[in-house]
Design a protein that fits this description.
With 213 residues, the chain is α/β, with parallel strands linked by helices. The protein has helices spanning 5-14, 16-20, 27-39, 56-62, 75-87, 128-140, 166-169, 182-191; strands at residues 46-50, 67-72, 93-97, 116-120, 146-153, 195-202, 205-212. The structure holds S-adenosylmethionine (SAM).
Length: 213
């Protein structure tokens, strides 16, 4: 499986406009809404939005919690997110370079007091071994008790039986997308010590809520 982080960053630098103009019923927006709800944010929470893109979920979340840090590998997306957030007057929101696999790559996040983490429609770009590394590193910078919510393409059923649903789920069939089975993600989070609940929204997409006590 080919994985090249810089290539993925370039892809998102170039398709930012396209993603921004997706209709509201796109599966990734539905999954994003569910994932935001599942975070159960309150005013004391500090949220990391990993793979924040243009920061739309980060901005929604910032209305309900103390502080949000969005990280991404696409510098154009981060720039767009920063401009939008300052136009809207957010003061509890910052956007930093960082990857899911190495969240501290750009800035050391360990002292930020992060107790909630969102990863919406971004984890599936990593191959399974890097997903494991990323989830472990994200869990490592999160205070306890903490909650990590993953909204993403995840296979609840054999994808070969749902070829006609790939587009609906936002799955490119394997070019830049490397989704895992729901079971792989659940086991990975449980191995990290989380108790995990799963909400299926589509045969190929859903939300996973991992509580770390
Ligand atoms: C489909 S967009 C989703 C953006 C946002 N989470 C949302 O739900 O609106 C995927 C984002 O993940 C980012 N991404 C992909 N691989 C990443 C990685 N390894 N680390 C951090 N961000 C990554 C891309 O640059 C892109 O901005």
């Amino acid at each position: 499986m080919n994985y090249d982080k810089d290539q993925v960053a370039e892809l998102f630098d170039n398709k930012l406009e396209h993603i921004e103009s997706r209709p509201d019923d796109a599966m990734f927006k539905q999954v994003g809404s569910k994932a935001l709800e599942a975070l159960e944010l309150d005013k004391n929470d500090i949220l990391l939005d990993a793979g924040t893109g243009a920061g739309n979920n980060a901005m929604k979340a910032a209305l309900s919690c103390s502080r949000v840090i969005g990280i991404d590998i696409s510098r154009k997306s981060l720039d767009r997110a920063g401009i939008k957030a300052s136009e809207k007057g957010f003061e509890n929101l910052e956007f930093l370079y960082g990857s899911i696999e190495e969240p501290n790559e750009g800035t050391d996040l360990t002292s930020y007091g992060i107790n909630k983490i969102l990863v919406n429609y971004a984890l599936h770009h990593l191959p399974d071994e890097l997903k494991k590394q990323g989830l472990a590193n994200l869990a490592g910078i999160m205070k306890r008790p903490g909650r990590m919510v993953i909204g993403d393409i995840m296979f609840f059923e054999d994808p070969e039986a749902h070829l006609e649903k790939f587009e609906e789920a936002g799955y490119d069939g394997g070019e830049y997308d490397h989704p895992s089975t729901m079971g792989f993600l659940k086991n990975t989070l449980e191995d990290l010590g989380a108790s995990v609940r799963v909400e299926r929204l589509h045969p190929l997409a859903g939300v996973m809520i991992a509580d770390f006590l």
